[in-house]
Design brief:
Layout lengths: L1 H7 L7 H9 L5 E8 L2 H12 L7 E9 L4 H10 L2 E5 L5 H10 L3 E4 L2 H13 L5 E18 L3 E14 L5 E6 L2 E6 L1 E6 L2 E2 L2 E3 L3 E6 L10 E10 L4
Parallel strand pairs: 1-2, 1-3, 3-4
Antiparallel strand pairs: 5-6, 5-13, 6-11, 6-12, 7-8, 7-13, 9-10, 9-12
């Protein structure tokens, strides 16, 4: 049933960028938000802080606040409710990411509570500035760990999709059960003993983070870039 409702709601899908326009047209009286966070305390603080932003034009409704990765059920609930999803130090699993893209569900990722409330306030008042859009390049699963003198921990990985690169403005995050445990830069990327600039899906490689060694077998390394996009008037 949730899937059927979600499919029927695509035409009027809400995003933070379109919120002010819908308020101005008198069509938006309620902003539904679904929260997923890395710990219960953060989920509770966010739910309380966002609910207090309600004003005479729009009421903030928290439809769910939970802990852990953003999953398929979260995205389907958000889609059926025409809700925004806030991911606080967590990411969607692969199924959830694919469904969110297909159903055009707006997922906002944050790691600072003030930034969440600030973004919602700006969206409500039409002051949301050109925003940053993340472009996912690829991911790799950690299969083995190697301790290398001077280099630290090298993660022996299999690239699952896309490509892993350390060139340009690319960044990397370390996910453990889809919870973000570190975000930084890749200092070393190798195929066998050779330094390389990128490795594509289906190939093995060695990955090391800059100044970070707490990597475990089963972790996923996700590589991305960030682009600035203009907010539509």
């Amino acid at each position: 049933m949730a899937k059927e409702k979600a499919l029927g709601a695509k035409g009027s899908r809400l995003t933070l960028e379109s919120l002010q326009q819908q308020i101005a047209e008198g069509g938006m009286k309620e902003l539904s938000i679904l929260i997923k966070a890395d710990v219960q305390g953060s989920a509770e603080v966010l739910a309380d802080s966002l609910a207090k932003l309600s004003d005479e034009r729009v009421r903030i409704k928290i439809i769910h606040a939970g802990v852990g990765a953003i999953n398929e059920s979260d995205v389907l609930l958000a889609s059926a409710s025409n809700a925004i999803v806030i991911g606080f130090n967590v990411r969607p699993d692969r199924n959830a990411a694919e469904i969110a893209e297909r159903e055009q569900v707006d997922i906002r990722h944050h790691s600072v509570i003030y930034n969440v409330t600030d973004e919602i306030k700006k969206a409500m008042t039409g002051l949301l500035e050109p925003t940053l859009k993340e472009v996912r390049l690829g991911s790799a699963e950690v299969r083995n760990l190697f301790k290398v003198p001077k280099a630290g921990t090298i993660a022996g990985c299999m690239v699952l999709d896309g490509r892993i690169t350390r060139s340009g403005d690319s960044k990397a995050r370390l996910l453990r059960d889809n919870v973000v445990v570190h975000e930084g830069k890749i200092s070393s990327l190798r195929r066998f003993k050779d330094d390389v600039s990128e490795v594509k899906a289906g190939f093995e490689c060695g990955i090391a983070f800059e100044r970070y060694n707490d990597v475990k077998v089963g972790d996923v390394i996700e590589v991305f870039t960030v682009e600035r996009i203009a907010v539509s008037a």
